[in-house]
Amino acid sequence: MDDERYAFVVEWYEEIAGRTRQFQFFYYVNSKCIEMFDLKTRKVFLRTSVKDNEITLPDLFIGGSINILGRKLTIIDYGEEYTRRKLSEKKEKTLGMIKPDGVEKLGQILDEIYKRGFLLTRLRMCCLDRNQAFRFYEEHRDKPFFNALIDYITSGPIIVFEIVNTNAVDNWREAIGPTDPSRARTVAPTSIRAQYGIDVTRNVVHGSDSAASAVRELEFFFPSSGPMLPNTSKGGNCTCCLIKPHAVKAGMTGKIISAITEAGFRIGAAQMMVLEKANAEEFLEVYKGVVHEYNGMVAELTAGACIALEVLSDTQNTVQVFRELAGPADPVSFLFVTMSLWGCDVWDYV
What we know:
Blueprint lengths: L4 E10 L4 E10 L4 E6 L5 E6 L15 E4 L2 E8 L2 H7 L4 E7 L7 H10 L3 E8 L3 H7 L9 H8 L4 E8 L2 H9 L4 H7 L4 H5 L8 E3 L3 H11 L16 E6 L1 H5 L3 H10 L3 E9 L2 H7 L10 H8 L3 E8 L5 H9 L15 H4 L5
Antiparallel strand pairs: 1-2, 1-6, 2-3, 3-4, 5-6, 7-9, 7-10, 8-9, 11-13, 12-13
Family: Belongs to the NDK family.
Keywords: Cell projection, Cytoplasm, Cytoskeleton, Hydrolase
GO biological process, one term: CTP biosynthetic process
């Protein structure tokens, strides 16, 4: 059987040398083999194979990031015309937003995104001030609802995210439904606005209305250069929850967040990120030399995108109460612990 091969150009920032290197990256679909060639020297840099589902073809798209042996690689172009023809028309990126009234439904809405076949590639919680909101909604400045829209969108935190799918702009617009939730409940009863929307203003979610708008809106919230909008971290009586890469990849993010909020906790901040090996080692430093699984824990945290959450509660001991909800690190022990997050997002100690 032929092993279908796709080629890309990827970048890796080598921290020790302080330089960015480019590679020809080959991915073999059936054997799960990977080859990397240094574009300057034309020499082989790496040949290896990956586990099933560690890297799949849907993960490989322009602008996406993957992690190979602790190296964060950013895909910047197709490496050959065959790959460009096969994949360029299939994948499209768009911006989605959960508006202030929908943030408490974050888990359920993310679950809808996964169920509909979208790949979640970037996510963060932020707040807009009035000037930022004016810039984002500039095209609506002359509309009668503009001032009400600005008041609403600046009334609390929002969740913005990048999703990838075939014809992502149109498919996401179809998934969220008509602007008016009342109409959505009639003509698109399974749409997100039909399920969670209140009225034309408080209609839960936003979607880019064209490919050009998607490019502009993604650049607004996820700029290619310069600072991003500040996060919404409140500090104080809170704890950190990290949804690990294997759980993100398996589409468990929505279910995990729903379990957290249904237990009475609140999400104060959220951000998706891909950790370099050095970052993961620093984050897990307290476990080094303490648990045998340390190296595996580092490998897991660098295996793909993870999602960091600031978790808040009304109790004075949020850290301890949340650890009780999370349950034992070894999910085998989940058999003896009910209502445990580990039981739904982890398959082994790592």
